[in-house]
Design goal:
The structure holds two protein chains of two kinds. Chain A is of the alpha+beta class. Chain A is built from nine helices and 38 strands. Helices cover 20% and strands 35% of the residues of chain A. A nine-stranded mixed beta sheet of chain A has the order 20-19-21-22-29-28-27-24-25, covered by helices on one side. In chain B, strands 8-7-6-9-10-13 form a six-stranded mixed beta sheet, with helices on both faces. A two-stranded antiparallel sheet of chain B has the order 1-14. The longest helix of chain B has 24 residues. Classes of the chains: A alpha+beta, B alpha/beta.
Chain lengths: 615, 301
Amino acid sequence: MGLLDPINLLYLLSLAVLVAIYLRARARPTLEVSSLLLFEEAPAPLARARRLHTDLLFWLEVVALGALSLAIAGLYMRVPQPPAHLRRHALIFDRAAAMGAREGASTRLDLARRQALRIVSAAPAGDQFSVIAYALETELVRASSGDRGAVRAAIASLQPRAVAARPAALSAALMRARAADDIELFSDRLPAGVLPAGLGGRLHFHQVGSTDNNLALVSLDPGEVGSRRGHLVVHNFSAQPRLCALSIECEGRAVARPTLMLAPHGQAVESFGPITWGGLVHARIETPDALAADNQRWAYLPGGRASNVLLISPDPAVRDDLARVLLAVDESARITALDPARLSSLRPGPPPDLVVMHDFYDPRIRAPARLLVFSAPAGALRLARTVALSELEQTERAGTLARPLALGPARVLALPDSMEVLARGSAPGGDEPVALAAAGRDARGRLGVIAFDLRGHLLLDPDRTEVLLLTIEIARRLLAPEALEMVSTGDYLSLPARGPIRVRLPDGTTIERLAGRSGTARIRALEAGLYETEAGGRAGVVLANYYDAAESDLTVKPMAVRAAGAGRPGPAVGLLPGRVRPLGTALTAVGLLALLLSSVLMLWREARRGGWRHV
Amino acid sequence: MLEARAFEPEFLNRLDRLILGVKRARTSRIGPRTVGRVQGIGIEIENFRDYVAGDDLRFLDWNAVGRLDQLYVRTYRAEREIELSVLIDTSASMGAPPADDKLGLALALAAAIAYVGMSESDAVRLVAFGLRRGKLALTPTAFHRRRESYAGLRPFVTGVRCGGETRLAAAVEQLLAARRQPGLTVLISDFLVNATDYEDALSRLLAARHEVKVMHVMGERESRGALAPGLYRLRDSESGQLRDFSASAATAEACRRRVAQLAARLRDFCSQHGVMYLPAFGAGNLEEIINGEFPRLGVIR
């Protein structure tokens, strides 16, 4: 039994009103008689005290009011689902990075697995188990099953991810397990405010882990080739001072091997270099600690050869603004700025690494990467129309803007599916969203598009910094090495491909994906390290770095949730298993029947009373 | 309400055959004497008889003397002149309980008696009495002698409302203060007063040489004590006095006994003092009362 809306029990106060009414009126109605002489022979009532006379009419009205109040409050009964003796268990595992922390010879996830396996073994035959894991997202590893072997296999297959656990993912996992009779949650921490009300005694929290010995690399700045020193930030999450041996390499060649003494919960910045050669910089902590995922980082140091950029625009102000942005992205870049009218003065030579064309397009200019700003149609791009005004409404980075950003003229281009739209907006004369910025590839190589005009120092307008950020993002993509991408764990990797793409994960396993309509395959980097891609004979490298301050802090704080192994109380109200059968209709019928009977009784009594007047 | 029936043609048709009998009456010239088929002053010849010495020569039939040469005396039906006053109790007790419609029954009976009385061209009036704002109010109609004027009673009959306390003796005293010649007085009431009050009232009427008839009106429900079982607070309609009362079958029986006791005492008093007593219990029994009880009252066919 339970109440869907207990607040409506306040309607039961009507019973008190009913009692008051009966005390006031029904208990002793006053009748006007012709003369008391007629009643002199009748004996006086024994009890003169004022009391409630509870006759049949009163009880009928009590039944009516009570039944209707309970119907409004949503009284229901839960019908147990047969067979009643079987219990359903949900095993929920935290598999965020911290669960990979070592506790002696095993990890926290191993400890959780062992506890879970004990529960599975101790459960009576017939009980069913589901296995749910969560970190960034919730995953149903094994649906509810009575097959103990499959359940054990599912538990054994769990591996920690190099990502932080999201409270929303835990909430989703608990929601998935809401039908279970027992919910076993295995984690080293429990975010506050995540547990939904009503789980009550069904949730059994198994807290695992005890160590706090962890050092983490917070960030890695490789510096600049031959000119600026790099920096490495290291944090000690332990309550004890820790010795930290570091190793910094670039393209396999040692750069530095410093050893630091870090204070408890202290942080240090280690400088190195400057490195005189470019390539992949790899920093790692040599000192063993509990969590390995945050012990190494990668960064890319552009090589010795500076990028050549050709910047063509009829507007000198735009040339100047774009050059500043490009230098901010790659300060070693060599930029040649030209007016289209003086293009003939360009001396022949090797093609530039990037060509930026503003309000101009010449298909004869070849480069592995092109950025078209407010450009005429180029190659596969078809010009739909040119509008005098446009508004930026949505970017991939910031999502939907709180207020549309007014832009100047824009050229509405038909973009191929292989390009990823980075910004959308609107333009007069059309209801469809307009692509205002995009990046991707076409048959001639990498291509970036900014559809709106940048005249009037739009890039430097402090009120429209979103335009600057958008331009930097596209420039960064076009200037980065084509075969190397740096991401953070948890990010999605957009891998360009035509057909199947094979990805070798950091743990050595290889997966295969098919590119979608956009010509890219998306995978999520859940492990830190090197992702090697291969598609159509072309190889690429993605490096995923992991760091999360909350997750790397392994300090275990005992949670005020029921300890594992405690008694199994009865199911909590509101989330009991079984079918809920509302009694509203039946209660309403009872109430109406009681009202009907009371009306009949009143009429009958009135007929019997026959004309005596109530005063 | 029931009083409206007193003016329905069907009701009146049944009354057409009735006449009001009186024991004593006062002729205008001869003085008090028994009313009947007796010689008296009038214009309607009753009979002829032989002349005997001492007869008034004014009644000698001279035409018979001329034709037959015998002395015959004409006898005339006496012209009676009776003042009929119907006193109607309009106290608050006549209105309780409302469903009993005691006042309606009383007014219907009063109108019926008045109608019957008009058949003999008696002077008939209705008098309502009751306490109004602490003062006794006696509300009489004008005297009506002919049935053609019966309809003139209608505004009075339908306009009477009950209220106030019952003061029978005071009402009779005020009635007699007018010093009219004695006549027939019909008193209609529920007599739910102290016995001394109605005894005093009836005694005063008798002392004033009125012929008195009493109609005891009671409601059907109150005479049966018909109350649903339960605890009640009873309020006297006239005095406002309150009393707790637990209704049951036993108390209903006690009420019936009490009603019978009150009626018996009134009837005994009436029989001891030559007052005609007529019980009129229940407004639904109007027809039976007129057909069965009116003859006892002296209303004869």
